[in-house]
């Protein structure tokens, strides 16, 4: 893959790298053309810069400091696979220089075959990835319905299940299908599905004593998330969902690829130097097929898919727009001085205080039917809207009868 210029007489000549002026260019990187070697250095530098806190000093430690544990969610997509590759290289360099590493990875893949049978086979994919990167740490596959196995997360997601059945465990897979099937729209289902992933991943991070979660979100993905969450009524959560640092879940959130565009990683995984990563991106083909289907049909597209189409469509010609959206999100801060009443029972974030008071129409309040009966709560308990943030209350509004097991 080499970039070329066309001369006035119609001949094509290769474009040379602006940095080394020796090799042919493979990508026009915003303002300059780069060859594969220089582009590899550029991508690595962006990731290493964000992982500065986990570097290894040359001086031996005075006390026994074991490597810090970091959790990396692996979806087999382009972004998370690239992040795993870059972190593996960083660990190898640390070992070569100092004979020790500054961190160890817990690589987790969330198996969603319970709700989507077309997803790549988790076992085969994880086995292949582990063969490529055997020394980064531990590998785990966790089924999405395993969220019901965590006592402090289960309460937010079980719907329409009697107390006796909950205590007995029940069929987690059927519970998950019933939850998503009760929701009123594709946007609601995708919204709660993303929340389920996040809650499960953070629960796993705490279980394995991880200091932080390393998300593979690029500049493009962070821009998509900012506008999507705002459109869904969860704009107050943008600082926690797009910024590096502490999260309300008890673990840090870090985004080492936040300075790279998705289109740049698409080129990177196809390079022959240092090694082609495209064969390991098992989930990338499925992502592309899904976007083509929704672009052609247009009906039933979710807010998240709409934002994905928009930003991946403009990042080629207008990368500065994508970067500006993320920089704007970075200026937002959480309102530490505002006293919030509890946490949202769905997303787990501090409530914005709007969910319980919002009136959607003349007869219906969130969590309350037009007859005054609380959804799924025949005992006539308190309104559920007051226990949700605005965005989550909108997501579950109109769902079939359910009961929050509070």
Structural account:
It is found in: Cytoplasm. InterPro entries: CTU2 (IPR019407), Rossmann-like_a/b/a_fold (IPR014729). The chain has 406 residues and is of the alpha/beta class. The chain folds into two domains: 45-334, HUPs (Rossmann fold); 340-401, no CATH class. 39% of the residues lie in helices and 10% in strands. The strands form three sheets. It has a six-stranded mixed β-sheet with strand order 7-6-5-8-10-9, with helices on both faces. It has a two-stranded antiparallel ribbon with strand order 1-2. Helix 7 (186-207) crosses helix 14 (390-396), helix 8 (219-231) runs antiparallel to helix 12 and helix 8 packs across helix 13 (319-330). The radius of gyration is 23 Å and the shape is globular. Mean pLDDT is 78; it is low at 6-13, 158-170, 292-296 and 355-385.
Short description:
The protein is of the alpha/beta class and 406 residues long. The chain is built from 14 helices and ten strands.
């Amino acid at each position: 893959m080499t970039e070329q210029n066309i001369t006035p007489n119609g001949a094509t000549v290769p474009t040379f790298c602006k940095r080394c002026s020796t090799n042919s260019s493979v990508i026009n990187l915003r303002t300059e053309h780069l060859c594969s070697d220089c582009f590899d250095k550029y991508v690595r530098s962006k990731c290493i810069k964000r992982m500065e806190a986990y570097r290894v000093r040359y001086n031996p430690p005075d006390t026994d400091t074991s490597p810090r544990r970091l959790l990396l969610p692996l979806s087999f997509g382009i972004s998370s696979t690239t992040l795993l590759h870059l972190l593996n290289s960083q660990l190898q360099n640390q070992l070569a220089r100092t004979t020790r590493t500054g961190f160890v990875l817990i690589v987790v893949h969330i198996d969603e075959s319970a709700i989507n049978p077309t997803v790549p086979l988790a076992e085969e994919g994880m086995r292949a990835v582990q063969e490529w990167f055997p020394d980064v740490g531990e590998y785990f596959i966790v089924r999405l319905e395993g969220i019901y196995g965590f006592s402090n997360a289960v309460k937010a997601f079980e719907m329409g299940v009697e107390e006796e059945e909950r205590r007995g465990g029940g069929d987690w897979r059927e519970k998950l299908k019933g939850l998503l099937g009760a929701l009123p729209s594709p946007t609601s289902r995708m919204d709660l599905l993303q929340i389920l992933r996040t809650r499960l991943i953070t629960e796993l991070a705490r279980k394995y004593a991880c200091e932080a979660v390393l998300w593979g979100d690029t500049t493009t993905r962070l821009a998509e998330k900012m506008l999507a969450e705002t459109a869904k009524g969860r704009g107050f959560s943008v600082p926690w969902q797009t910024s590096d640092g502490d999260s309300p879940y008890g673990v840090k959130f870090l985004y080492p690829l936040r300075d790279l565009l998705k289109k740049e990683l698409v080129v990177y995984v196809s390079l022959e130097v240092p090694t082609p990563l495209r064969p390991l991106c098992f989930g990338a083909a499925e992502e592309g097929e899904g976007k083509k289907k929704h672009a052609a049909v247009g009906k039933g597209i979710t807010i998240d898919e709409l934002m994905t189409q928009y930003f991946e469509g403009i990042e080629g010609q207008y990368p500065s727009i994508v970067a500006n959206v993320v920089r704007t999100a970075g200026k937002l801060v959480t309102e530490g001085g505002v006293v919030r009443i509890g946490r949202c029972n769905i997303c787990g974030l501090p409530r914005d205080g709007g969910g319980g008071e919002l009136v959607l129409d003349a007869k219906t309040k969130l969590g309350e039917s037009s007859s005054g009966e609380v959804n799924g709560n025949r005992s006539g308990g308190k309104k559920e809207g007051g226990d949700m943030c605005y965005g989550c209350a909108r997501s579950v509004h109109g769902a079939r009868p359910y009961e929050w097991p509070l």
